[in-house]
Amino acid sequence: MKVKSILVTQPKPETDKSPYFDLAKKYTVKIDFREFIHVEGVPAKDFRKERVNIMDHGAVIMTSRNAVDHYFRMCSEMRVTVPDTMKYFCISESTAFYLQKYVQYRKRKIFHGKQTFMHLIDVIKKHKEEKFLYPCTDIHKEDIPEILDKHNIQYTKAILYKTVCSDLSDLDNVTYDVIVFFSPSGITSLFKNFPKFKQNKTRLAAFGPTTAKAMVDAGLQVNIQAPKPGTPSMTMALEEYIKEANKK
């Protein structure tokens, strides 16, 4: 069956340079974007129940822009003045640059890895005397705490925001040839919004093994998967599938 429409369960790209737009133009395919999950901040009154003192920590581990935003939001709500001596350890250079939204960028206090936490841990290990705060969501991978524990890093996990299912009721009578998922939470949101969802002729794409497993566990068929050899990105996997499906 040909592919004429695709729903990507992520926010619409902010620039026109996204490979999704190139894909849509090249194969005359309609591609829509819709977040199946979104982030909501934990209120300060609820965070206080965690009994985490932000100022007990001289360094912060930032794994995303959400972590940056909600760390400074919480500091503001709790009337905590972040000292200039605070050190920031960021998962990537882009996350490090995003800090400029809140602090004056000083390289001596802002450190970053190369997209993966395994790169960042090498930087963190050079500052083992610090006590780190790890802002995160309520649904997070345990690999980061495991790596920190393995290297005997002093840290405190702080749940500052939560991942929640979006309201998708307006999609009730809308169908797509392909729906693209990027996390198990997206599958959870699908069934929370549409408990009686049947895959039927809809092809499903999964990014990452945990997303694919969540699909299978939910009784769904994985038709397109990435990353895999030759197609490291989701857009490349989609293109490979579209080429084959639409040539008939």
Question: What's the arrangement of secondary structure elements?
Answer:
Elements: E1 5-8, H1 19-27, E2 30-33, E3 37-41, H2 44-47, E4 59-62, H3 65-77, E5 87-90, H4 93-98, E6 110-112, H5 117-124, E7 132-137, H6 143-150, E8 155-165, E9 178-181, H7 184-193, E10 203-207, H8 209-217, E11 224-226, H9 234-246
Parallel strand pairs: 1-2, 1-9, 4-5, 4-7, 5-6, 7-8, 9-10, 10-11
Antiparallel strand pairs: 3-8
Helix pairs in contact: 1-9, 7-8
Question: Can you give a write-up of this model?
Answer:
The model has no long low-confidence stretch (mean pLDDT 92). Helix 1 packs parallel to helix 9 (234-246). The N and C termini lie close together (8 Å). The longest helix has 13 residues, at 65-77. The chain has a six-stranded mixed β-sheet. It is 32% helix and 21% strand. The protein is elongated and about 60 Å long. It is α/β, with parallel strands linked by helices and 248 residues long. It has two domains: 5-36 and 167-246, Rossmann fold, CATH 3.40.50; 40-163, Rossmann fold (3-Layer(aba) Sandwich).
The gist of it:
Helices cover 32% and strands 21% of the residues. The protein is an alpha/beta fold. The strands form 2 sheets. It has a 6-stranded mixed sheet with strand order 3-8-7-4-5-6. Strands 2-1-9-10-11 form a 5-stranded parallel sheet, sandwiched between helices.
Specify the biggest β-sheet: 6 strands, mixed
Quantity of strands, as a count:
11
Question: Low-confidence segments, ≥5 residues, pLDDT <50?
Answer: none
Tell the overall outline. elongated
Please give the count of helices. Answer: 9
The overall pLDDT average reads 92
CATH topology title of the largest domain: Rossmann fold
Question: What is the CA-atom radius of gyration, in angstroms?
Answer: 21 Å
Give the CA-CA distance, first to last residue. 8 Å
Strand content: 15-25%
The side-by-side strand order for the widest beta sheet comes to 3-8-7-4-5-6
Percentage of helical residues? 25-40%
Named CATH architecture of the largest domain: 3-Layer(aba) Sandwich
Q: In total, how many domains does the architecture comprise? A: 2
CATH class of the largest domain: Alpha Beta
